[in-house]
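Question (not urgent): is this output format expected?
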Amino acid sequence: MISWIDGARGTRIDWRDRGLQYGDGLFETMRVRAGRVRLLDAHLERLLAGCARLGITPPPAARLRRELAAAAAGHGDAVLKLIVTRGRGERGYRPTGRERSTRILSRWPAPPSAGCDPARPITVRVCRTRLGLNPALAGLKTLNRLESVLARAEWRDARIAEGLMLDVEGHVVCGTMSNLFLRQGTVLATPLLDRCGVAGVMRRFVLGEARSLGLRPSERRIGLQDLASAEEVFVTNALAGPVPIGVIRHGRERWRPFATETARRLRERLDASR
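Got this back:
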């Protein structure tokens, strides 16, 4: 792993940084393929939009592009993680407005799961940890991911690749590190993220490609019964792309009747877009 703090190689961050003190910041996790960041425009658009919503003055977009391109160059398959915090601050929750944002960029080897075979469906489980409702932060990829941390700690079975999370009202929202899609006929549905959850860049890619595949995209509330009756279910994230689900475990129940065609076709579109 190699890291840069505000553009300079390093590993130390000021203990007064609000990202450390309060989780006051955002992050992007990006896949590098053939020395280039995949879906870079979408990542930067989401990051800058998130900064605007939180009132964080972001680093210039041109500077971020240069630093990301330099970190990705010469690396055929890697992961970049970019964190932007509000910066060093005084004690107390209230920002002064004088803070200068901190950017932390790190490069990691791509995990084996990032190159998973889309023809091999994964097994997932339904988590006990629930997501709270907070429309003010819904859709953002903030540094506060404690609900996902607790959910991911629920299992150690290596055969389970992901956990699905419900909100406090029992609606299915997402995975611990992914967005969720289900297909019934020609309707491709994904949970509405107006009250919680992260709006992933791969989710955006799938919604943008759906109609060209003859599918009608729909964002709505989804219940567990919808998963049980779906023809196809898959998850997405920026590293792995679309990944089909073959088995959903919910207590003693096992739901299995899932096709993989849509995930496969989307993966082909994603590979062609590089």
